[in-house]
Amino acid sequence: MASAVVSDNFETSTGAIPSLGGSSVTHRLCSAWVNFDGSLASASMIKSQFNVSSISDLGTGKYWINFLSAMPSANYAVTSGVFDGTTGQSLGTGHATSNNKDTTRAYCEINGTLNFSTNYDATDISIVVFSN
Question: What is the Cα–Cα distance from 90 to 122, expressed in whole angstroms?
Fold first, then answer.
């Protein structure tokens, strides 16, 4: 028999974040994510998000993902997925450069040619951030 826990708030009796297997829940959940259309202007490109305040368009395929709440350190992991609806091409992944990360934003470049050497403004970009 399957069961489910349904709650609007998940915390210990003291209000702390509960531990799961010796690690805090915050270390197992993403700290920020965004799905956006890189072909639109910055003000309208976000489709859906969590903990992302805005995206700064720095040129073709180059973006700052600006966090609503800062990460506890710049030692976070970023992963991405990219699809372009105008060409129907899955572009694989973009990347975040570690030398440009700070606690308030992550730098991402999206490459979109077959050899992944040319930056591209894809229509469906997903970025996920995990922090400690």
Answer: 10
- For 109-112, the CB contacts below 8 A with 24+ separation are 109/61, 109/62, 109/63, 110/38, 110/61, 110/62, 110/63, 110/80, 110/82, 111/61, 112/61, 112/82, 112/84
Q: Which pair of structure tokens corresponds to residue 34?
A: 């965004």
pTM: 0.73
Tell me the pLDDT tens digit for each residue of 64-119: 899 999 988 888 888 888 887 777 777 665 665 555 678 888 888 776 554 556 77
Of 8, 12, 9, 32, nearest in space to 20 by CA: 12
Q: Are 72 and 31 in contact (CB under 8 A)?
A: no
With 0-12 / 13-18 / 19 or more C-beta atoms within 10 angstroms meaning exposed / middle / buried, residue 35 is middle
Nearest CA-CA partner of 47 in 34, 64, 33: 34
Residue 55, helix vs strand vs coil: strand
Count the Cβ atoms, other than its own, within 10 Å of residue 117.
Answer: 8
